[in-house]
Amino acid sequence: MPFGNTHNNFKLNYSLDDEFPDLSQHNNHMAKALTKEIYAKLRDKQTPTGYTLDDVIQTGVDNPGHPFIMTVGCVAGDEESYDVFKDLLDPVISDRHGGYKATDKHRTDLNHENLKCGDTAGLTESCSPVGLGFESRLGCLVMD
């Protein structure tokens, strides 16, 4: 196993109260979503590659964040993480992406004729960047 987390079995010798991290001073999505109930349910789980809940939350535990900058606070170590740790990752993803649910699907329309420019003043009717200044984000701006 790439991660080789033998510590996962050892830590189960400790009680949930001893093991649950104090996230009261943390400003990240993981800290908002992780409850003792979720921790208790997931603390002994791991993916086939050995990725554990502790691996998922470690970055958010180590980096409490800034009061004005909300970070994610967790990582999915492999594809299976999204299934094994969905009780934590689904609320984090939803919170981070404005209510995006696990059942939602991202619609992809690759037909360029269906692109719409928006209501920003100064946009050309065709939204063609030819001959115009073009910002790094999506948008067509007329440069005088």
UniProtKB/TrEMBL annotation:
GO cellular component assignments: extracellular space
Record-level Gene Ontology MF annotations: creatine kinase activity
Domain Phosphagen kinase N-terminal: 11-98
InterPro entries in the record: ATP-guanido_PTrfase, ATP-guanido_PTrfase_N, ATP-guanido_PTrfase_N_sf
PROSITE patterns: PHOSPHAGEN_KINASE_N
Entry's Gene Ontology BP terms: phosphocreatine biosynthetic process
Similarity-based family: Belongs to the ATP:guanido phosphotransferase family.
Protein name as catalogued: Creatine kinase, muscle a
Protein encoded by which gene: ckma
